[in-house]
Amino acid sequence: xxxxxxxxxxxxxxxxxxxxxxxxxxxxxxxxxxxxxxxxxxxxxxxxxxxxxxxxxxxxxxxxxxxxxxxxxxxxxxxxxxxxxxxxxxxxxxxxxxxxxxxxxxxxxxxxxxxxxxxxxxxxxxxxxxxxxxxxxxxxxxxxxxxxxxxxxxxxxxxxxxxxxxxxxxxxxxxxxxxxxxxxxxxxxxxxxxxxxxxxxxxxxxxxxxxxxxxxxxxxxxxxxxxxxxxxxxxxxxxxxxxxxxxxxxxxxxxxxxxxxxxxxxxxxxxxxxxxxxxxxxxxxxxxxxxxxxxxxxxxxxxxxxxxxxxxxxxxxxxxxxxxxxxxxxxxxxxxxxxxxxxxxxxxxxxxxxxxxxxxxxxxxxxxxxxxxxxxxxxxxxxxxxxxxxxxxxxxxxxxxxxxxxxxxxxxxxxxxxxxxxxxxxxxxxxxxxxxxxxxxxxxxxxxxxxxxxxxxxxxxxxx
Length: 464
Ligand SMILES: [Zn+2]
What we know:
Blueprint: H1 3-19, H2 24-45, H3 47-52, H4 69-74, H5 76-79, H6 87-95, E1 108-111, E2 121-124, H7 126-142, E3 155-159, H8 166-174, E4 181-185, H9 190-200, E5 204-208, H10 209-221, E6 230-234, H11 240-250, E7 254-260, E8 264-269, E9 276-278, E10 283-288, E11 303-308, E12 319-321, E13 323-327, E14 340-347, E15 352-355, E16 361-364, H12 366-373, E17 380-386, E18 389-395, H13 403-416, E19 423-428, E20 443-445, E21 454-455
Parallel strand pairs: 3-4, 3-5, 5-6, 6-7, 17-20, 18-19
Antiparallel strand pairs: 1-2, 7-8, 8-9, 9-14, 10-11, 11-12, 13-14, 15-16, 17-18, 20-21
Helix pairs in contact: 1-7, 10-11, 12-13
């Protein structure tokens, strides 16, 4: 691994540690000056932003238009601040990517898996990539991992190994004596994953939430025999039951993280487990409703807008992530200045619409399903909305489970929401189907006529 990158990472991490002790005023001042520098850079070097913010360059952030992934991809060549970057060539680079190569020998390219329809491509120069790596390292450090030149931590990840995926790219940069890592693909058969984890004996386990739950069950059954000091989940909705099972087998060592290919780790749990602290010194978050109006703490937003303060190659200002998160009403008592998210319920695409008993339509939020499904004795599940009703897929079902009881719970739950109850099928499967990045979303809808189903819980998390 590149020693310059490692030293840059450690020095950025030292800076971030100081931010943890900031007062609210210090954080606000840092955000204001970082935002000013970002906007100046975008207005000086991005033809897209010169037009997009025309007449608004002096207006406050919340008066600026929202940037979607579709817009970013449509105006790719104009949005980037280096005219040598061309989408067509970036695509070619990505198609041939094997390890830690850089586009134009300068840019690390990451892609989202396109689970919500369109793939997004994101380029990072050295300083941006260092910030991304430091954001992940910060999450690990908050959980108690020691990160220094002299300390190595043996880790295993069960996520995506596609070379364009952020978890694999970050791994390719960091792979070294310093961070010996076993990277397994979440779409491999569980027996193979278990066998390799047993041989590797990781101190740190990083996995999609759905995979952490399966592995906890494997440990409980005695097939998996590992003793990680830390377990990190990301990229999918983490339900209470999954957390309970992981803690049951490995102790209170689970730390959830919320990341996005667009900005690295955006939020992480601290040692108090009161929710996820937004990394507001790196990214300005806005929790908003579908019309981009701010939503108060305690209420789920429809989207999260992010302004990535360190972005320069592709400035991201009020960039839309379709994740539905809720800000906590009370701050974390541990003293970090950053706002807390106390729940992430998935993507706005996961909200199912049903004909309402009272006429019109009713929107049913994914946490209605999470609450019912969390109690089911199975190692994996997925609720699929099809044109003619709901299908519930279950894998690893244990004894004593009755299909009809579950179907009834769904009928009652949907009726309580005011929906006309659709046909409900319960189906046992060997494993829950995984998408392009190996994720197994909890909720899928085929109703919108999209070729690819809207993927739930794929919380744009180093994902997409
Ligand atoms: Zn905290």
